[in-house]
Design goal:
This protein is an alpha/beta fold. It is about 45% helix and about 15% strand. It contains twelve helices and ten strands. Helix 1 runs parallel beside helix 4 (about 80-90).
Length: about 260
């Protein structure tokens, strides 16, 4: 049983709630390890089609755990066990939706950016305040943020440490929808259920192709997309999807 997470299943969606209220869900080694282990379990569970990750009303997550970080010197940071957990989260193959209320700062903002979709409550605040600690983002806060919001705003956020509101994050493209805070998780679960009702192999390959756009040139990305599209021609779910359309009924996908 995890100590730092609550885990619930809603039909084909796993809801993971970060639970370290005493530290505003700061991401210590234990929490990131438990999150990585939970994602491992979900990846091997064909009954789960998507994951929603959320925090509390006050904080999605207030960053890396500063108390833990203070104990690590250069060699400790170099051998930081959290790195493997971050890599596990980044490599997760199923859709991950972040439902963000309150603070998403530092590693918390970086965790939200590991999600494929971010839904934010009106009171959410996204920021990379590491500069105030004499450090800088280390889990994607320069790379993913710049790709999400563009150079000028990312640079302003990283170099001033100042956070942006949910509305600003939506305008900049970091967040896809802004909701009333009490509806954020519900809306994220709805989107996750919709995705989980689609053909799992098509969802998996579409996610992979979308992520490719982050780290490849256009020609290679288009080639990857074409290969992935072609691969799906060998699936039973493609046959079923097309047949269901022709027979004017809802498709029954099996993941084959
Ligand atoms: N790590 C450890 N503990 C944290 C924490 C963090 N990142 N953020 C908050 N806490 C703890 C506080 O120490 C406090 O605990 P105590 O009562 O035991 O002191 C408790 O959570 C509540 O926090 P506050 O009293 O500070 O709450 P507030 O409402 O006054 O302020 C806040 C909220 C503005 C988010 C403030 O807590 C804050 O600035 N937190 C730090 C944010 C930050 O700098 N994050 C970046 C961390 S570095 C990083 O993330 C690097 C990386 O990924 C690579």
């Amino acid at each position: 049983m995890p100590h730092t997470l609550a885990v619930h299943t809603h039909q084909a969606v796993r809801l993971i709630t970060l639970q370290r209220p005493e530290a505003l869900n700061a991401l210590n080694t234990e929490l990131l390890g438990e999150l990585a282990a939970e994602l491992d379990a979900v990846e091997n569970d064909p009954s789960i089609g998507a994951v929603v990750i959320t925090g509390s009303a006050k904080a999605f997550a207030a960053g890396a755990d500063i108390k833990e970080m203070a104990e690590r010197d250069l060699v400790g940071i170099l051998n930081d066990p959290r790195l493997a957990h971050w890599q596990r989260i980044a490599a997760f193959k199923k859709p991950l939706i972040a439902a963000v209320n309150g603070f998403a700062l530092g590693g918390g903002c970086e965790l939200a950016m590991h999600a494929d979709i971010i839904i934010a409550g009106e009171d959410a605040r996204f920021g990379q305040p590491e500069i105030n600690l004499g450090i800088m983002p280390g889990a994607g806060g320069t790379q993913r943020l710049l790709r999400a919001v563009g150079k000028s705003l990312a640079t302003q956020m990283v170099l001033t440490g100042e956070a942006i509101t949910a509305r600003q994050a939506q305008q900049a493209g970091l967040v896809s929808e802004v909701t009333q805070p009490e509806l954020t998780v519900e809306r994220a679960l709805q989107i996750a259920q919709t995705i989980a009702s689609k053909a799992p192999l098509a969802v998996r390959l579409a996610k992979e192709a979308l992520l490719k756009a982050f780290d490849t040139d256009l020609a290679s990305g288009l080639r990857f997309e074409r290969h992935a599209f072609t691969l799906l021609a060998g699936t039973r779910d493609r046959e079923e999807g097309i047949r269901a359309f022709q027979e004017k009924r809802r498709a029954k996908f099996t993941g084959q």
